[in-house]
Amino acid sequence: MAKSSRRTFMAVSAVAVTSGLAGPAEAAERRKPPADPQLRAMLREIDPHRIEAIIRRLVAFGTRHTLSTQDDPVRGIGAARDWIQAEFQRYAESSAGRMTVSLDSFIQPVSNRIPVPTRITNVVATLRGSLTPERVYVVTGHYDSRVTDVLDATSDAPGADDDASGVAVVLELARVMATRSPEATIVFAAVAAEEQGLYGSDHLAQTFKDRGTDVQAMFSNDIVGTGDAHDGTPGDPRTVRLFVEGVPTAETAAEANVRRSVGGENDGPSRQLGRFVGDVAGPEVTGMRVRQIWRRDRYLRGSDHISFLLRGYPAGRFTEPRENFNHEHQDVRVENGVQYGDLIEFCDFAYIARVARVNAAALWSLAQAPGTPKGVVIDTTQLTNETTLRWQPGPEPDLAGYELLWRETTAPDWTHSLPVGNVTTATIDLSKDNVFFALRAVDHDGNRSPAAAPQPSS
Ligand SMILES: [Zn+2]
């Protein structure tokens, strides 16, 4: 056994004795506001007035239906596409060449909700990482909109909440981050054809997959317009929901067998991502409570994160706490005194700015921390009451080392952490049968990666 592992073994003995103190101390650590002055500055720069202006502009295109006109300069999805591209381009000018803007464009053949071959275009701004550019984080909103009939391409479809609000989050993040230099790459995407069946994000995720891109997290912002359902119930303007699945959508049959045998249903990569966001983007940092919903999405609905989950990429969906379905996917009309339609008057721009701050804290913390550890295994070659983890060394030049995490099998979140140094194996005197383990990486500034749950060695 290596020397470093032996030292780790000794250290863990000490921590296990004082475990009653380790939990609360760690919780206090998490409640501190962000130490990173760049993040604090960005959170201040996120501007509700700019968010309002973006949503007003998007609504003014009349409809952004995927099947609407693409060559009218005033109305339709083509005009919206060109405007979003020009905005990204304007932000990129302040990036000293770090941000590039591109169109991910393709012809969707006739398919469900696509009655004629249709050009679908995602508008993408990429902010290249300074240290590990091959590591990528993606944030999206969808710029297409709809009314009651999903094939109605001509009626007014303002789509203020669904999803100009998400596009405004993405644009505002791109604006404030363009002047900064994150360590990993951040991709800001306004995707299309979400309402027709996630076609835009599906193409974007497949393009990443085909290129072998190491997407380590993705967030869809979809319906993030208000904390008030406008239905007479109390508002909840300081909460945003984050949907994160436990069992991976892309899980193979062999992986499912392992998961069932070890009880891994609460430790998929997206669930770990949710825990990470809870740690770095809470109320003390963003003024918002991130209410995690431990499922893939709402009943009957699905957003663009599913396109990434299908490719095995960790992903989640931000959405407002309580929806008013009279304001989604509806013809604009008044019926029996009730206003239907996705109108801008139901948006709360300060709320959307706070959702943007949650995204900023999550994305910046991901990009500045080391990547999620890879190749993490738990030694199962013999029956023993100790636990040995092994992993691949991370590529980050500012990597300081690793921390083991563990929790009771009934606990929702990690309760214990132990620094083990810059090593690739560690043995601790706790039984793997009795707790759940994970590993995270730490850099010299104390930035911590999302946790990676180990797979059994065989
Ligand atoms: Zn939507």
Give the topology.
Layout: H1 3-17, H2 19-30, H3 37-45, H4 48-59, H5 77-92, E1 99-108, E2 118-127, E3 132-142, H6 160-177, E4 184-191, H7 194-197, H8 199-210, E5 214-221, E6 239-243, H9 253-262, H10 269-280, H11 283-286, E7 289-293, H12 305-309, E8 315-319, E9 333-335, E10 338-340, H13 349-368, E11 377-378, E12 387-390, E13 399-408, E14 416-421, E15 425-428, E16 435-443, E17 455-456
Parallel strand pairs: 3-4, 3-5, 5-8, 6-7, 11-17
Antiparallel strand pairs: 1-2, 2-4, 6-8, 9-10, 11-12, 12-15, 13-14, 13-16
Helix pairs in contact: 4-6, 4-13, 5-6, 6-13
This protein binds zinc ion.
Overview of this protein structure:
This protein is an alpha/beta fold and 458 residues long. The protein has helices spanning 3-17, 19-30, 37-45, 48-59, 77-92, 160-177, 194-197, 199-210, 253-262, 269-280, 283-286, 305-309, 349-368, and strands spanning 99-108, 118-127, 132-142, 184-191, 214-221, 239-243, 289-293, 315-319, 333-335, 338-340, 377-378, 387-390, 399-408, 416-421, 425-428, 435-443, 455-456. Strands 1-2-4-3-5-8-6-7 form an eight-stranded mixed sheet, sandwiched between helices. The chain is globular. The model is unreliable at 1-7 and 13-25 (pLDDT under 50). The site of zinc ion has 6 residues, from α6.
Distance between the termini: 19 Å
Q: Largest beta sheet: what is the strand line-up?
A: 1-2-4-3-5-8-6-7
Rounded mean pLDDT score: 93
**Share of residues in helices:** 25-40%
Number of helices: 13
Q: What share of the residues does DSSP label as strand, in percent?
A: 15-25%
Strand count = 17
Bound molecules: zinc ion
The helix/strand series, from N terminus to C terminus, equals: HHHHHEEEHEHHEEHHHEHEEEHEEEEEEE
